TrEMBL record:
Pfam families listed in its UniProt record: DUF6318 (PF19843)
Region of interest (Disordered), ranges: 28-73
Tree of life domain: Bacteria
Alphabetical list of InterPro entries matching this protein: DUF6318
Chain intervals with Low complexity compositional bias: 43-65
Name of the featured protein: DUF6318 family protein
Signal peptide: 1-28
Organism listed in the record: Arthrobacter zhangbolii
Keyword tags: Signal
Length: 215
């Protein structure tokens, strides 16, 4: 058992490091509001079927040492992030980090993979790190990236990309399994500055590379 855990720890902490490894490896719905009440429905026969009571949405539960996160909302790309503009690129960058956070909480990297290029090295490390953290019945606690600021000069590079800078911090990343804490990787509370180089295609923006400018 001890040897098995040791191998698991080695695989987790040797597996390329995420976005925090971005730094390491690349140096509710609102209240619908009031309004006029709807008019009463017309009378119907006595055999009318009663309207079913809406099922309440499942409650979100963050990950902890006791188990993985539950009922994590899937991030939705805002319409602005689909625009070929400075504002669209900045909104896309914010959504990209939301997709990364979703990966940390669920082990599902498909949302971020769908908006990242196949040659993005940091992205590949992130996929590997998250998928490794969710092997078997294991899970990840933390790792969330908090975006503090986003800016792009929106100037086309010779390679046909646009650059956007993102200032962020990251929570520590804990690796857990049933009854096991494999260890915790440090996050960073001193702001890092990362850069996404993105290209616009008929399908919208996608990240071709992610690098750390300051971290």
């Amino acid at each position: 058992m001890t040897r098995t855990i040791a191998r698991r720890v080695a695989s987790l902490f040797g597996a390329g490091v995420l976005l925090g490894g971005l730094v390491a490896c690349s140096q509710a719905a609102g209240d619908p509001g009031g309004g006029s009440p709807s008019p009463a429905p017309p009378s119907v026969s006595a055999s009318a079927t009663p309207t079913p009571t809406p099922t309440p949405s499942a409650t979100y539960k963050p990950a902890s040492a006791d188990g993985p996160a539950e009922n994590v909302p899937v991030p939705v790309m805002p319409e602005e992030a689909k625009l070929e503009s400075k504002e669209g690129l900045e909104a896309f960058a914010r959504y990209w980090y939301e997709a990364a956070n979703y990966g940390f909480e669920t082990g599902d990297v498909e949302p971020i993979r769908a908006i990242s290029g196949p040659d993005c090295a940091v992205c590949k490390n992130f996929y590997q790190m998250v998928e490794s953290g969710y092997q078997n019945e294991d899970w990840i606690v933390g790792g969330q990236l908090t975006v503090q600021g986003i800016h792009s000069d929106y100037v086309l590079t010779p390679e046909g990309r646009y650059q956007v800078l993102i200032q962020n911090i990251q929570a520590p990343i804990g690796y857990y399994g049933p009854g096991v804490h494999y260890g915790t990787r440090d996050g960073y509370q001193d702001s890092a500055v990362q850069m996404i180089e993105a290209r616009y295609s008929p399908d919208g923006w996608y990240a071709e590379s992610v690098v750390t400018i300051k971290g």
